[in-house]
């Protein structure tokens, strides 16, 4: 186990050097890195918006409206063609699923069906693009002809609409000059937009979210506008609003659409001095537009943008050039509005309406604070862990510390190569990894101590220590990895950054603990040829004993107090359930929707005045609380009735009210808006993540050990989760998406601890066949007690620095994990292990002694 070939040695060193080269650009400016040779890695870690500031928008594509629009277009085509062919029909109607027309002349029904089929599937081609399989289905039901869209067509239409929306959004953002936007699809019908450096996303929303659907319609001069407004709209017409409350009756069928535009520019009309938008049609559009203007001289036509008439001029003469211009109507265009409209028309129309269902903005100042606090917390936590491990293991502690530093280096290198987004919770994942990474070394070193106590030679103790600890390390870290992967696939937002760093850290921990530590020890043994191992539990030549959290030879009768511990645990779980039912949880806007604003004032904030401003805005309950420093205040507005758009309106209202009421000395550093739709989904995903994590871990432990171990582990996890929920309910701590991440991390840590103890119990069951199970569990718990406390202390040192120095944003998140370390350690000792006494356990492995071997006496 301590032999390394040159090839393996060089491979390990190459990995470490390569990681150092990959990480190095992160500590230099972009200008310096840009001057490096082309073959040298230049990538830098992609910082999340919570670290560098910016805006996050989650859009939902209104697929249902798109489907209704397509069916509506089919209805108008059917109406026009049946009238042209003089096919009599009695009823033409549209539902959410289809279009139906009743043919009154049965002898012409086949003819009508052929006309309809030709409309929806001309020449056998697809309606939604060449080669597409998304076509309408035409059927005959009695005297009705039914046109419907099959499921496959709906799926393809939805997929195409989202893909086209992403492309249109990208063109619009590029035209606006937005720096490094990130646009990605989420789920089936949602689009994420991340905008680094954008403090106020309102102009982006105004530009990106507009459908920009431009159509040209003839005005029906013969129709009465009052009659149409009263509901008596002539067939084939529609009522459309215009500027200043004016309404128009237009022909439904558009004569030309914005799809025929090739260019659009904002200009100043040389005759009137007004801002206008000039446009140019392609050849097909120019031909259609020319024909319409030739046939309708002295008649009016309307220019409709997103369901509103922006101008309705009279056609004075035929326009055959394919060029035209749009004026701003009564209100007129400004320089900005004309430029924005031209940009929209150039980039193309969205295929369907977009609505914002979630919005988050972080100021650059807050992002810089988060980076500073994260770096400080990481450095202090790492130094605390390094000092503790050095005190506990001396020289071997130095080896473990070097492995931890290399571990962090590898995490940063992998995150850089993957271009994964590093968030503030991601930094928390690195800090947590530092605390838990030592656990693997502790397992190895404690195994070595046991072998030395049993009289093994130095080299044998080293060999067996690595060999026996390897399976336990693998099992323990795989359970942690399961929790991290579930969090990644079911999590959202910055929490996925935590999942990435935690998962990567778990993998690198296995590598560094078993490879790097072993390599350093192997080199030390080969060079020094020591007569004793520095972690030897015996005193050295001068009579000095090493530092121990648990004294040598300490034995605690855990099972003796099992009934008392069970009573405390049951009482705690019942109390937590009662608190949850009676008091409930203080859900954040992540789950119930609403608006959150963090503001900073020049001096200590006047909470009473801020609360008074909020209460006077008519937004319902407005919660105001100090957030960290006296100058920072968090304002929460409850979810507003009216759906997702109502939350955005509330955000604008509260921002305006605070900035006007508090004056120039206030700055908005963070905003979050979550619509009720997303909030409900996050609740479901959070519960699903917890359930999946518990089931997978139980299955894994069952597979690796026995079913009794799996049930005991689940009982312990249930205990940990319920006590954590009880604490959150009792102290009214905010229960957010970050808390779900903390619960999953608690599950991973707790299961890690339980796997180590289960592994020792299984080993002792094989080793001591006739020993009483109660005594065997006590023996196993005491044998692993040193490792259990060492791991808990190193993890708490890392989390403690994160809690104190990591900033207010993740304080509750960190508290949940600190609490989880305590309850997870407790449940490993007094829930999971004693559970075996209730269920029994397999005892028929071959071999083993009748009694446990006596511990070697200290010399």
What class, by secondary structure content?
Answer: alpha+beta
Sheet with the most strands, sense and barrel status: 8 strands, antiparallel
Number of helices: 25
- What's the number of domains? 4
Helix content: 55-70%
Proportion of residues in extended strands: 15-25%
**Inertia-based shape:** elongated
Overall pLDDT level: 84
Distance between the termini: 28 Å
Going across the major beta sheet, what is the strand order? Answer: 7-8-2-18-24-21-23-22
Low-confidence stretches: 122-134, 540-545, 853-859
Radius of gyration over C-alpha positions, nearest whole angstrom: 35 Å
Question: Would you report the number of β strands?
Answer: 25
Structure report:
The chain is of the alpha+beta class and 859 residues long. The chain has four domains: 63-156, Hypothetical Protein, Haloacid Dehalogenase-like Hydrolase, Chain: A, domain 2 (2-Layer Sandwich); 164-359, Gyrase A, domain 2 (2-Layer Sandwich); 363-533 and 554-582 and 680-839, no CATH class; 594-674, Alpha-Beta Plaits (2-Layer Sandwich). The protein is 55% helix and 16% strand. It has 25 helices and 25 strands. The strands form seven sheets. Strands 7-8-2-18-24-21-23-22 form an eight-stranded antiparallel β-sheet. Strand 5 and strand 6 form a beta hairpin. Helix 16 (562-582) crosses helix 21. It is elongated, with a radius of gyration of 35 Å.
Summarize this structure as a short list of keywords or feature phrases.
Hypothetical Protein, Haloacid Dehalogenase-like Hydrolase, Chain: A, domain 2, 859 residues, alpha+beta
